Amino acid sequence: MAVGRIGRALPPVLAAVLAAASVPARAQGGPEQLDQLEPGAGEWQLEYAGVFGGDGEQELEALFALSDRFAIGATAEFEGPGGGIRLDAIGAKALYRMIDPDGHPIGLGIGAEAAVSADGSFAAGEVRLIAESRPARWWIQADAILRHAREDGLGGTGIAYAGSVQRGLGSAAWLGIEASGQVLRIAGDPGLAPRGQHYIGPSLTFEREMAKGNEAEIGIAWLERVRGQGPGSGPRIFVQLTF
Fold this sequence. Notes:
Elements: H1 3-9, H2 12-21, E1 44-51, E2 57-65, E3 70-79, E4 86-99, E5 107-117, E6 122-133, E7 138-151, E8 154-169, E9 173-188, E10 197-209, E11 215-227, E12 234-242
Antiparallel strand pairs: 1-2, 1-12, 2-3, 3-4, 4-5, 5-6, 6-7, 7-8, 8-9, 9-10, 10-11, 11-12
Helix pairs in contact: 1-2
């Protein structure tokens, strides 16, 4: 039954709710995740990352480093917990590390990712330039992201960013500030390639060496929306295991 015919039979408020539900969802911007120049050769890295503003975008990622420079892996993206956790997309990911940050003042790498939605259609593809530096007692990270997204026959291409500056608190904790957002829409649908959305807030990261050279990293940030009409302010959490 069409929404218009239902509207004549139901109260106006309920008809409006049904009409809104019939409109296809649009991808939104919001806080961006930071990618690092890890793992090292022969290592596995498992990561959970979640942003809890807007739709509550969350991601699981597994990477394996084939060499000192090249790693490949897979990702799964979810939305929730509002309305329940639901699979949004799965993808493949690759990382090429041009300069190792452990042996140079600034490390550089290129990451690439492509994802398909739960129904098998192309969802998004991105390329990001990743920079990382660890001078004495500081940890500086920056990502520049070129992304193309598709949904319901529409597409959008834009440029986003993420960055963090943290200072060491002893040997196992880092405190600082994180910022991210979408700066430019190159072409396409505004909902799929937003611009002018910016987030900033404090961040805290813990690192712990475990047995046999394994490492755990846990980070949390509060990202306040300071500009734009994207998803609201909220926490960003990640847990990363390297072994």
